[in-house]
Design goal:
The structure is a single chain. The protein is mainly α. Helix content is 70%, strand content 0%. It is rod-shaped.
Length: 46
């Protein structure tokens, strides 16, 4: 059986960085939506 050629390490690390950035961005969007809903409901800090 012939082994498949390995992808460059920078490309493999790049995928992890991309997934991490996407998850952080998604979490930020969820936090903003929750904050907006709380603001609409009259729940404000301070």
């Amino acid at each position: 059986m012939i082994a498949a050629p390995r992808k460059p390490w920078i490309r493999r690390i790049g995928w992890f960085v991309l997934l991490w950035a996407a998850s952080v961005a998604a979490l930020g969007v969820v936090a903003l939506v929750i904050r907006a809903l709380m603001s609409l409901a009259g729940l404000t800090a301070g």
